[in-house]
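Aim 2 progress update. The chain analyzed this quarter is reproduced below.
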Amino acid sequence: MLAGTKQTKTKKMKAIMTSSNETESAIDWLEGYRNQIKEESLMSLVHSILGDMGAAASGALVLLGDRLGIYRSLAKSGRLTSKGLAKETGLDERYLREWLSNQAASGYVEYDPGTEEFFMKPEQVAVFADPDSPVAMTGGYYALASTYHDEPKVAKAFQSGNGIPWGDHHDCLFCGTEKFFRPGYAANLVGSWIPALDGVEEKLANGNAHVADVGCGYGASTLILAKAFPKTQFVGFDLHEGSLEHARRHAADQGLNNVRFELATAKGFPGNGKYDLVTIFDALHDMGDPVGACQHIFETLKPDGSLMLVEPMAGDKLEDNLNPVGRLYYAFSTMVCTPGSRSQEVGAALGAQAGEARLRGVAREAGFPSLQRVAETPFNLILEAKR
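Predicted structure tokens:
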């Protein structure tokens, strides 16, 4: 018993000493880094983070402005006080006054202190109040909201290395993705991207052509093409039935009878040697096996068929992407794209900033002779691979 007591005391003393040493080490580390702080650099970082926190906190207010139609009411009405806007919208004036104050401080609306009126400049209208503007940005805030809802799931994925299927995310992600990307597709797809492909526009216009849109989501890209080329048959494939239900309703609302939507994976959708064009819009990097998907697409294309890839704008090196666009895409890649890929077989996790060189490698490994950049926007790379 005495021997056991001595051993226990010895272990306790060692534990206390170890803990004491670790505490001293932590104190030394804290003092060491604090002595290296440069005041000017520190305050610059603090001010930058305050701006980021203000933007993050204001995101919920952007959603309110969009959901409640406040932006559109203010844009249509011109100059209004908070009382005038309350009368126009039927919303509570006190809440509106606080909302307007935040928006003015954010630079999202303007304020005239002489008249106490708020108004929107044309540029602000284009971003917040015109859903069809090519620079409409409110959809991004819905998608951002989903990342906060899903943060606990992503934290578990960090710990386990497992993935998160697309369909397991908050609903805001699905509607936000469509709302964010649709205006850009509407502005560019028919007018410049399709014409940039080798001989594709003529095939679609003449009719009897078949197009598959893989990873179609709510069907924004599919429906834009189906409306523009009524003689061509379109089918959108996706692995999320909830998104396909929305796509089918949108097609019915628009009275389009040359398009349908089916549940299928990128490696399993039907149509061997059938398609003149297969498209993937901002989805290849989300796939678990992008090489396998492109191999299957290669087999589904006609001998002169084309694959059009629309992927996030990115350089081939990390240092090329250390900019606002890269920052945004890396954030979504961490919260959505990488977990989505890791939830599928292979789990390649290309990431939303894969870059053209890696995408070219995927296409080459899948059997395509080449992958060429045919167009670009500040947000997207548009690439074509010929069968």
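The longest helix spans residues 2-34. The CA atoms of residues 44 and 189 lie 41 Å apart. These observations will guide the mutagenesis experiments scheduled for the next reporting period.
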